């Protein structure tokens, strides 16, 4: 069973803002539109998992940014 993308008008105001930013920066918001089916999981991903990985640990954020940039260019990811 595939998850469906939720239209913008079905999202909360904060999700709409995040969606608009994603569209403006990357031109794509599929991850958010599908993730909106389970907002608690999306919140966990951005605020707990991603926040701890990107801003936590001993490696400087600058190094993590460079690694993310390199990985995105290798895999063709707009984010």
Give a written overview of the molecule:
The chain contains four helices and no strands. It has 79 residues and is mainly α. It has one domain (8-75). The longest helix has 17 residues, at 39-55. It starts with 12 loop residues before the first helix and ends with a helix.
Index terms:
mainly alpha, 4 helices, 79 residues
Beta strands, count? 0
End-to-end gap: 26 Å
What's the helix count?
Answer: 4
Main sheet summary: none
Mean pLDDT: 88
Radius of gyration (Å): 14 Å
- What letter string, H or E per element, gives the SSE order? HHHH
- Any idea what the shape is? globular
Judged by helices, strands and strand pairing, the structural class is mainly alpha
Structure summary:
This protein is an all-alpha fold. 66% of the residues lie in helices and 0% in strands. The protein has one domain (8-75).
Per-chain topology:
Layout: H1 13-26, H2 30-35, H3 39-55, H4 61-75
């Amino acid at each position: 069973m595939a998850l469906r993308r939720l239209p913008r008008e079905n999202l909360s105001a904060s999700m709409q803002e995040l969606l608009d930013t994603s569209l403006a920066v990357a031109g794509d918001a599929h991850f958010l539109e599908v993730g909106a089916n389970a907002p608690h999981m999306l919140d966990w991903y951005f605020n707990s998992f991603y926040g701890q990985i990107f801003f936590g640990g001993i490696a400087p954020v600058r190094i993590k940014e460079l690694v993310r940039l390199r990985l995105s260019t290798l895999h063709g990811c707009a984010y």
